[in-house]
Specification:
The mean pLDDT is about 85. The longest helix is centred in the middle third of the chain and has 14 residues, at about 195-210. The chain has about 375 residues and is an alpha/beta fold. It is elongated. It has 2 domains: about 5-190, Spore Coat Polysaccharide Biosynthesis Protein SpsA, Chain A; about 195-365, 3-Layer(aba) Sandwich (Rossmann fold), CATH 3.40.50. It has helices at about 35-40, 60-65, 80-90, 110-125, 150-160, 165-170, 195-210, 225-240, 260-270, 295-300, 355-365; strands at about 5-10, 25-30, 30, 50-55, 70-75, 95-100, 130-135, 140-150, 175-180, 215-220, 245-250, 275-280, 280-285, 305-310, 320-325, 335-340, 350. About 35% of the residues are buried. It contains 11 helices and 17 strands.
Length: about 375
């Protein structure tokens, strides 16, 4: 089965109750979530692209025309994605339809290939599933899966019975469903549902546009343990084969050699910069009239996959905050998550400061690795 044998149904309801406003209008990397998924879908070679929305809104006609999408509207509001699947599948001009949620900005269409492969293998075994469901990290992803258009009838029937949870309908038809474990990064299925999710998504999107991605580790006060926190993350990254660079901001002057050693003698003799090289690497100490920014220093690092900044202030977005009771637990918007040894009330998600697994996951997510 080829992509040209398949339609793509984009479910873009619009309720967005947890976000507080219409997620379709959220801008990421210079375009709205809705336009982003439409643009990517239009380039794949699907037989058709169907856009399911709960109601008409400003610009919907222009978007549909721009990306050659057929629009279907909910008959009744408040039915969630079930309504979108029922109407969208019924409107399809192909037997098989890839269903996608509009709030998955990092979804890649290469994820369709293992679903097609699993379906074709099932056919060879004389099995004929009506749904091929993506599973990642133990979670089912019904809004990133393949459906046979005949399931539109089952979804219409479920709605009539007030069954509005996709999982319930899929479970009821479990003998007709095929579950496919997707290997690799489950972050490709990341949904933007809350303001906290949005901060994470913006941080990742910005890093994907950088030559080398970066994350700042910051805290309101010194002696919070930023260096120790980074020291605990670095071995996890190294085990994965990831080369990490570290850039630290220090308000105090420093020296890297002792009295009477070579570099000390060179500087006392008037050198403005000293470089040392060996088979293991090189070191450059450059005197400057003013303190360089973290980003200026980061640009000098070579052969690294990501950079961790350690800074008490003036970090670079995205940042992870630490709090151990020093200062006030107030973090700016560039902080996407906080790690603390106590309960604190902040807008960002709070994790225990010893949860290094979570910290490593966030660094990988934010850097797109």
């Amino acid at each position: 089965m080829k992509i040209s044998d398949i339609s793509c149904l984009i479910v873009a309801g619009g309720q967005s109750t947890r976000m507080g406003y219409d997620k379709r209008t959220i801008e990421l990397s210079g375009e709205t979530l809705l336009e982003g998924i439409l643009r990517k879908a239009s380039r794949q070679g699907f037989r058709s692209v169907i856009l399911s929305v709960d109601r008409s809104f400003a610009g919907i006609s222009n978007l549909a025309e721009k990306y050659n999408a057929h629009v279907v509207f909910d008959r009744e509001p408040g039915r969630g994605p079930m309504e979108g699947l029922a109407l969208g599948l019924s409107a399809s001009n192909t037997d098989w339809v890839l269903v996608l949620s509009t709030d998955m900005p990092f979804y890649t269409f290469s994820l369709l290939s293992p679903l097609i492969t699993a379906l074709e293998m099932a056919w060879k075994r004389d099995r004929h599933p009506l749904a091929v469901i993506s599973c990642a990290a133990g979670r089912r992803q019904p809004l990133a899966s393949l459906y046979h258009r005949s399931l539109g009838v089952a979804f219409h029937t479920a709605i009539a019975r007030r069954m509005l949870k996709l999982g319930e309908v899929i479970e009821a038809a479990s003998t007709s469903a095929l579950y496919v474990d997707i290997q690799g990064k489950d972050t490709r299925f990341f949904n933007i549902n809350t303001p906290a999710d949005l901060r994470l998504a913006i941080g990742r999107a910005i890093n994907l546009s950088r030559k080398v991605p970066l994350v700042t580790i910051t805290a309101p006060k010194s002696n919070t343990g930023k260096t120790t926190f980074i020291e605990r993350i670095l071995p996890r990254l190294a085990e994965m084969g990831i080369y990490a660079g570290v850039v630290k901001s220090d308000a105090h002057a420093f020296t890297l050699d002792t009295e009477g050693k070579d570099t000390d003698r060179f500087f006392k003799a008037g050198a403005h910069a000293v470089a040392l090289t060996s088979k293991d690497g090189y070191f450059l100490f450059q005197r400057t009239d003013e303190q360089k920014t973290l980003l200026e220093l980061a640009e000098k690092l070579e052969n690294v996959d990501l950079i961790l900044f350690e800074s008490r202030a003036h970090g670079i977005f995205p940042a992870i905050g630490l709090f151990r009771g020093l200062g006030e637990p107030h973090f700016p918007n560039d902080v996407v998550a906080v790690f603390s040894d106590r309960d604190i009330a902040v807008p960002q998600p709070v994790h225990h400061i010893d949860d290094i697994d979570r910290a490593t996951f966030l660094v990988l997510f934010l850097t797109g690795l």
